[in-house]
Specification:
This protein is of the alpha+beta class. The chain has a single domain, classed as Alpha-Beta Plaits, CATH 3.30.70. Strands 2-3-1-4 form a 4-stranded antiparallel beta sheet. The protein is elongated. The relative contact order is 0.19.
Length: 121
C-alpha cells in the first residue's frame, strides 16, 4: 500500500498542520483527485456522500499547501477544523509523570491480575 500522507514541510523541517477537508466533484473527478494529489482519508476507506445533484463529497485530510493545489485544480473545497491543533490540545490532557511509580503502583480499573501478571477481562 502506498503511503499517501501529505509530506509538505515548513522551514525547519516541521510538518505542516493538517485540516479536515470536504471535496465535492463527479465520481470521475474524485478518482482523479486521489490519483493526482496525495490526500489522506484517515485510517479507513474513503468516506463519500452522494449529493442530490449526482456529485460525491469525500472527506480528506490535507495541508494548507495541498488544499490550495486542490482548489487551483478547480475542486470545490470546504475546509473543516485544524486536526493538528486539536491533537495538540488533546496531548495537553495527558499526564507527564510516571503514574505507576516505576512499577510500585498497579493500574486500576476493569480486569483482574492473573498469575503471570497480565490483566484479563
Amino acid at each position: 500500500m502506498t503511503d499517501r500522507r501529505d509530506t509538505d514541510s515548513h522551514a525547519g523541517g516541521e510538518l505542516p498542520d493538517i485540516f479536515e477537508v470536504e471535496v465535492t466533484a463527479s465520481a470521475d473527478k474524485i478518482g482523479e483527485l486521489f490519483e493526482r494529489f496525495q490526500v489522506d482519508v484517515g485510517c479507513r476507506h474513503p468516506h463519500t456522500t452522494r449529493n442530490n445533484d449526482g456529485t460525491l463529497t469525500v472527506l480528506v485530510y490535507a495541508s494548507e499547501g495541498r488544499i490550495k493545489e486542490i482548489e487551483a485544480a478547480g475542486y470545490p473545497v470546504r475546509r473543516g477544523e485544524n486536526v493538528t491543533a486539536v491533537g495538540r490540545e488533546r496531548q495537553a490532557e495527558i499526564g507527564k509523570g510516571d503514574r505507576f511509580e516505576g512499577g510500585r503502583t498497579y493500574p486500576e480499573g476493569l480486569g483482574k491480575l492473573t498469575p503471570n501478571g497480565r490483566t484479563a477481562s
